[in-house]
Specification:
Number of helices: 17
Number of domains: 2
Structural class: alpha/beta
Keywords: Disulfide bond, Signal
Protein name: Acyloxyacyl hydrolase
Organism: Sarcophilus harrisii (Tasmanian devil)
Pfam family, one: Lipase_GDSL
Largest sheet: 5 strands, parallel
GO biological process, one term: lipopolysaccharide catabolic process
Strand order of the largest sheet: 2-1-3-4-5
Strand content: 5-15%
Shape: globular
CATH topology of the largest domain: Rossmann fold
Low-confidence stretches: 111-118, 472-478
Length: 478
Amino acid sequence: MCLGCVLIVSVVEQLAQVHNSTVREGMEKLCSFLPEKLSLQNICYLTAEILGPDIIKLLSLKLNADVVCHALHFCKQKPGQPLCHLYNPPQGGLKRALHRASRSLGHSPPQTSPGDSLGICWIPALAKFCQKIEYILNSALPWEDADGDKHSAFPTLRGFYWRGRDCNDRNSDVYPGRRPENWDAHQDSNCNGIWGTDPNDGIPYEKKFCEGSEAKGLIVLGDSAAAHFHIPPEWLIAAHMSAQTFSNLPMALSNELDWPQLSGMTGFLNSASRFPDNSVYLRLRRRNRCNHRDYQNISRNGASSGNLWKFLGSLSRNQLSDHPAIVVYTMLGNDVCNGKSNTESKMSTPEALRAHVLDTLAFLNSRLPQGSHVVLYGLVDGRFLWDTLHARLHPLGQLNRDVTYRQLYAFLSCLQVNPCRGWMTANKTLRTLTSQRAAQLSSVLEEIAASAKFTNLSLLYLDYPLRERFGKKLSSSA
């Protein structure tokens, strides 16, 4: 709640500055930019009506977003903890500014709100949407799946942006990745677009083009990197905002702020990505057209070796009726990343990682057809997050040159929501320690790939070549 409040109040203040208007007009402009879908625009206007007068009063006193959100109790100081702030403290200090804000309001805003425990889901217009999000977060299964085959004809809410599109959502025997039924002479049972028979010789097209091609699907088990988590910077740059800016917000919200359709693993849509290479799925598809639509991105923000079991069951594969698959296991950081102040004690140990990965491989061996492969990617060395970004301006700070990534990392750590306190920190010793643990865990994965044997799987270990592949690009475009 605190982070969201500071971001929104900052954008409102900057919109007023950019357009040389009042704070009220800045609020109205932001609301007008939001789409009507999911009632986002109406919710914005309602929130502005309730909280607007207090925000206007506080910003008119030249108090920054940190002070505003503390005064409205969206940001709260826990016992023994400092007052968290994104911006440099006002002259005289944050406590003095907060005391001034409280006196100005002349009343005490409620210490709790429905949003404290339920987020925005207490709002009636969003209740059903939140129910859908809760379902897919718990299951990683498509919300729209009429025949229960774990594939969908709907794009978001874990639909075909995440796994191959179901070409017949009324028949559970029709889905991407299955071996063709009677060579698909009469229907497209595997949704790859190849079916029917050649009138010249009566041979089914699937048999003619795909027999012996060793078709294999792609399954990705990953974290936010594999899911392609992304917050567009234009959402935070007031100078460039328009009604077009937030046109993709409903889609992003229904995809958990992930963009798997553009990811490096299972992406299939054109994008303005700075990375020129096609996704792994598109390469497999280009190599063998029979692989069309046979992909599953079973990734989740915050996923690690220890919690993968919670959604691994959403994998769709039948040993008897489906093609083999190439599984990419790519947990790049969350086994060493967390937002806790005692971050080191919360990292996965080599012993725990070994046990979790072997359990995952045993599950895959029980589900995947013979001839499948598993690629175990090592953890990334995340020190680049500090090395390349800490002195750069964050999009929110570009207008007034007042917020760097260093400040953002410190703010997130204070709130204990830093996605990786071990790497996104000014503490060089902690950054080094985190990378050392990541290297230890990568060694465990490499050893497993070299020694573990399974009847249906072959294993391969690869280091994740982040610096080699993307280092220069990250430095130039971060």
